[in-house]
């Protein structure tokens, strides 16, 4: 396993992270979830990403149990706050009240005294940004959070947060967690250039495009039984736009490239996002340990300029680049 700095911070993370958005606490039994976490550990993964809202807080609980007994100093545990976790009006958003209460719940479920990275899961238009950043800064001072980051924020939102932190003398955000893959390149236009200038690293989710880049979805055919494309709980609403014959046909055309490199399609997809120097880590999930062992083999893979050009030539017409085509914040994972 190779490691990278999280942005310009001193924190090192495994370039493959293990995430449990769609699995732990909902899709798979706990024994299988624990087996996946242990497979990740066996393969050298030290970075684990979750959120309080995943599976209505159950994902954090499962991850905490799965990591029990591991040397805490050797792990980087990330979680997030924003989405509702209870019915109260203050059980959501980025108010000081919700942040301060949510971190306590996350620490309890994760069975740890601190998290390495605490992320604003979305931008909160109803709370002053100064209030949110001050609350995060206070958690850093209390030792409950080591670093702060954001998830799926636009470039202008990130820039505002950095400006306010500098003016108020608060801890700066060090990372952003966006969707990024060969097919979804929205961050390349504005978020990545800003992040490179300001020292943020990307922790990217869905590098395999919800499984589309594995090649298992075939043009003109119904999705395989049990796949995410037919399971709303498994995130099917996020891949419907990719399940078009022109997209699926071009994904099939990547198979010869992967084969020439001795990679699976999934490994090629993960390796591709890691070629971007602004990516600190790529999050992979799994419902079976063998999926973890397969995906982590993308660590350390170098794709030369010719391979990257061939991929662009194959996928060019179906790549999403325009930020205006992103789903609304209320519909993001």
UniProtKB/TrEMBL annotation:
Coiled coil: none annotated. One of its GO terms (molecular function) is oxidoreductase activity. Residues 15-314 form the NADP-dependent oxidoreductase domain. Keywords: NADP, Oxidoreductase. InterPro entries: K_chnl_volt-dep_bsu_KCNAB-rel, NAD(P)_OxRdtase_dom_sf, NADP_OxRdtase_dom. Pfam families: Aldo_ket_red. One of its GO terms (cellular component) is cytosol. It comes from the Bacteria. Belongs to the shaker potassium channel beta subunit family. This is Aryl-alcohol dehydrogenase-like predicted oxidoreductase. It comes from Thermomonospora umbrina. The lineage of its organism: Bacteria, Bacillati, Actinomycetota, Actinomycetes, Streptosporangiales.
């Amino acid at each position: 396993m190779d490691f990278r700095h999280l942005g310009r911070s001193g924190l090192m993370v495994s370039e493959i992270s293990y995430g449990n958005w769609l699995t732990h606490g909902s899709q798979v039994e706990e024994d299988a979830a624990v087996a996946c976490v242990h497979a990740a550990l066996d393969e050298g993964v030290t970075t684990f990403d979750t959120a309080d809202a995943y599976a209505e807080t159950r994902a954090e609980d499962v991850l905490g149990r799965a990591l029990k007994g591991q040397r805490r100093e050797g792990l980087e545990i990330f979680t997030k706050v924003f989405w509702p976790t209870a019915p109260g009006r203050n059980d959501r958003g980025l108010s000081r009240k919700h942040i301060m209460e949510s971190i306590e719940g996350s620490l309890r479920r994760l069975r740890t005294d601190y998290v390495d990275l605490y992320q604003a899961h979305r931008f909160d238009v109803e709370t002053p940004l100064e209030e949110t950043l001050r609350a995060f800064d206070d958690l850093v001072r209390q030792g409950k959070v080591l670093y702060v980051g954001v998830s799926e924020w636009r470039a202008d939102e990130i820039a505002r947060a950095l400006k306010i932190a500098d003016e108020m003398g608060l801890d700066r955000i060090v990372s952003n967690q966006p969707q990024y893959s060969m097919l979804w390149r929205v961050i390349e236009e504005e978020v990545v250039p800003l992040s490179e200038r300001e020292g943020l690293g990307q922790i990217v989710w869905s590098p395999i495009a919800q499984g589309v880049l594995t090649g298992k979805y075939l043009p003109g055919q119904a999705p395989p039984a049990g796949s995410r494309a037919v399971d709303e709980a498994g995130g099917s609403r996020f891949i419907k736009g990719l399940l078009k014959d022109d997209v699926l046909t071009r994904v099939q055309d990547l198979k010869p490239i992967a084969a020439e490199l001795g990679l699976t399609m999934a490994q090629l997809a993960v390796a591709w996002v890691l070629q971007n120097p602004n990516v600190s880590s790529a999050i992979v999930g799994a419902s079976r340990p063998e999926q973890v062992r397969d995906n982590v083999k993308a660590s350390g893979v170098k794709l030369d300029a010719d391979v990257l050009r061939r991929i662009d030539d194959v996928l060019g017409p179906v790549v999403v680049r325009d930020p205006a085509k992103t789903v609304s914040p209320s519909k993001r994972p």
